[in-house]
Amino acid sequence: MKEEILFFLNEKSDFISGEEISNMLGVSRAAVWKHIKALKEEGYVIESISRKGYKLIKSPDLLTEEEIRKYIKTNFIGKVIKHFDSINSTNIKAKELADSGAINGTVVISEEQLSGKGRLGRNWISPKYKGIWMSIILRPEIAPTLIAKITQVGAAAVIKAGEELGLDMMVKWPNDIIINGKKICGILTEMSSELNQINYVILGIGINANLDLDDFDEELKNKASSIKIESNNLINRKELCGKILNNFEYLYEKFMLDGKGRDSIDICKEKSILIGKNINVIKGNVSYSASVLDLNNDGELVIKKENGEIEKLFSGEVSIRGKNGYVI
After folding, report:
1. Measured between alpha carbons, how far is 283 from 41 in angstroms, rounded to an integer?
2. Which member of 76, 119, 195, 323 lies 3.0 to 4.6 Å from 105 by CB, making a disulfide possible if both were Cys?
């Protein structure tokens, strides 16, 4: 019921009476007041005036379903949102929900992650109320060999959402989003499958939205940052989250239709921070130098080794580093 009352408050630009709300919901005015009180305790600023009713003045910076909903214009992505104040990992929770039958497009989002993970098991700092830590449950009917492209669909969605907010983001293949040479977002795609059948895919997106410099360990400050630090502006987390989900659904549906994901790959190619650069390729304990030639239509990074050999890299367990730093 609290969600319905919040919906009415959001829809009304002026005051709405407690009697009007109680009539629409079929509850007592005392029950309405009780839920209004609960909303205030959650951080909503609601003005109450006798004989006029209630008016929503300000909403808290929370990524709840009620707060994100106003920014979402999708058909299935984010139609179900599971919000948590604190959680070990949104990917872990999403897997649990997927195993229990959660529908395609369900989004798991948390204000904080206690055990956030990136690719290759790396830790991901996820402080409370400062980032966007979310996972999307997908049930694509495609071959498991095509799943790597979903990472690039996710990267392209973040890039497009950033553009809509005036942010110039780049992609460090296969899953890092960069601003001013610093990582501000990571994408982690995990799959549950049997032979040639996919049970589900979990797309995890972690965005350093409003982290401050002291939120990062010393060893991370030379390669990681936040949108707030790099743009010198506080980002609207709810708006950015909604725009990512909108762009993701559009690009994902195009990928499901043709199985190629060319639109997403083209975006990642245009915004690649690696093409034309010299890099170090790391495969387990093996490392070698190469130059990046292209991102091909299959989403593979095309490189040229020092001996002249051309190689196509498939994301898997490959790490890429700049010759002298994180990206350069």
Report:
1. 51
2. 76
What φ, ψ does residue 199 adopt, rounded to 5°? -80, -50
Q: What is the CATH number of the domain that holds 83?
A: 3.30.930.10
Residues 110 and 80 both lie in one domain: yes
So what's the pLDDT on residue 66?
85
**Residue 53, token pair as written in the block:** 């009713």
User: What single-letter amino acid sits at 268?
Assistant: C
Do 215 and 75 belong together in one domain? yes
The pLDDT score that the predictor gives to residue 93 is: 97
Q: Which residue has the tokens 């992505």?
A: 77
Q: Which residues lie closer than 8 Å to 22 by C-beta, 6 or more apart? A: 28, 29, 31, 32
- Same domain? 241 vs 287: no
Integer Cα distance of 248 and 252 in angstroms: 6
| One-letter amino acid for residue 109 of the chain | I
Co-location of 162 and 78 in the same domain: yes
How is residue 30 written in tokens?
A: 């005392």
For residue 248 the two structure tokens come to 């993701």
In the DSSP assignment, the letter for residue 102 is P
Number of domains in the chain: 3
> What is the C-alpha to C-alpha distance for residues 271 and 177, in angstroms, rounded to an integer?
10
Question: In 25-181, at which residue ranges do the beta strands (DSSP E only) sit?
Answer: 45-49, 53-58, 81-84, 107-110, 132-138, 170-172, 176-179
Task: Tell me the average confidence (pLDDT) per consecutive run of 10 residues in the chain, 328 residues long.
Answer: 82 88 90 89 86 87 89 97 95 97 98 76 79 97 92 97 97 94 95 91 97 90 94 96 98 95 97 95 89 95 96 78 64
What was the pLDDT predicted at 9? Answer: 86
Same-domain check for residues 11 and 147: no
Residue 327 domain-assigned (yes or no): no
- For residue 229, what are the domain limits? 65-270
Cβ atoms of 180 and 230 within 8 Å: the answer is yes
Whose tokens are 């130059």? That residue is 291
Taking the C-alpha atoms of residue 229 and residue 242, their distance in angstroms, rounded to an integer, is: 21
Q: CA 285 to CA 280: how far, in whole Å?
A: 12
304 and 231 within one domain? no
Say whether both 181 and 201 belong to one domain: yes
